[in-house]
Design a protein that fits this description.
The complex is a heterodimer of chains A (about 280) and B (about 110). In chain A, about 30% of the residues lie in helices and about 30% in strands. In chain A, a hairpin with a 2-residue loop joins strand 6 and strand 7. Chain A is built from 7 helices and 17 strands. In chain A, strands 1, 2, 3, 4, 5, 6 and 7 form a 7-stranded mixed β-sheet that branches. A 5-stranded mixed β-barrel of chain A has the order 8-9-15-12-11, surrounded by 4 helices. In chain A, strands 13-14 form a two-stranded antiparallel ribbon. Chain A has about 280 residues and is an alpha+beta fold. Chain B has about 110 residues and is an alpha+beta fold. Chain B contains 3 helices and 3 strands, in the order βββααα. In chain B, strands 1-2-3 form a 3-stranded antiparallel β-sheet. Chain B is globular and about 35 Å long. The two termini of chain B are about 15 Å apart. Classes of the chains: A alpha+beta (about 280), B alpha+beta (about 110).
Chain lengths: ~280, ~110
Amino acid sequence: MTFLSPARRAVSYTFRLTCDHDALGHWFDGLVGALPIVDADDTTAQWSVTRAPGEEPARWCFLVDGEERGSSPYPDQLATTMIQTLNGQVVQRWTGVVAHAGCVSIAGDAILLPADPESGKTTLTCGLVRAGFAYVTDEGVAFLQGTSRIEPYTKPLSLDKGSWFLFPELEPAVPLQLDDAVPNQWQVPPDAIRPDAVSGPCDARFIVFPKYVEGADTVLTPISRAEALVDLAKNTFEFNQHSREYLDQLAIVVEACDCYRLTVGTLDDAVACIQELVGAE
Amino acid sequence: MPSDGAARPVIDEGFAPRRGADVHTVVLDGEAVLLDERENRLHLLNHTATLLWQLYDGEASLAELATDVSAELAVDRDTVLADLLTITRHLGAEGILDGVVADREGDE
């Protein structure tokens, strides 16, 4: 193996990567470079990317603790598989509640953006980070048990094709990319958006449920905490398996927050709305 | 006749509603979120329904609750009873009252 990454921690999951192509290994590690570096120990998962023997063009195989999780000749597709694997491990390993939400912070106050897939939460998260908010996550908000405190999960932002036109400056340079590649998702490290964009631990202060509606006016509408609790529960990983315990935990979070729905007509208007919201506080 | 063969109690003014044993309640700013743990369903109650939900102890009939609430809020008793019946029948249809089978005809 020619590349060995430092061990990194994603919430409570630690892993390190080996790769038998040095430049590719550096690229993969760069995608998760915002995750804190930790000392490896016997709980650290061993990730590896190896070239399938005898194939041309090269096909890259992704393994976790020796078990193949995917393969592709396209490094960006493999990166998407790796990040999806990481997401699953974060949810599985965290002993508390993980909400399916984007999240940014400012001055230690977190703005949660829970939403269904394809509702635009990653796009809004990216826009807010570009506008100066600190990046917490675009996927999973992990709460410390019994509190509204959030442990950041600073994975790369996974930007779908439909949002690329909003962030042309973030198009990644993928090493070893084949000419016939048809990307459908960018993995964007937060410091590619803005230097020092990563948030530290923060406390939930606002919950905003975004929904993109083409051509609509961008409108922020207050909702009751009870209504927010119901919708947050619907956007929480594994809620049905731990419903009572998770509902009580989410209630602690919601009690600490002002809650809103945000109809998003344009990204710029949505960012301005959030800026005004936190500025007004 | 419900599919499980059980008879449904008549929810009238003589009915004494009791909160379902498998229903977990969280109240935020006077509104309740109910978790039906058997069905893993969430229900949101407004302020009025939340107030009533907290009175459903299986002892007081709807007639008695109507008298008490009417006196407390200085609202016409018949109006209160009508609202109580509506709310209670709705909660019963959702399957979150003790001894009342949910109305799942629409699910069949």
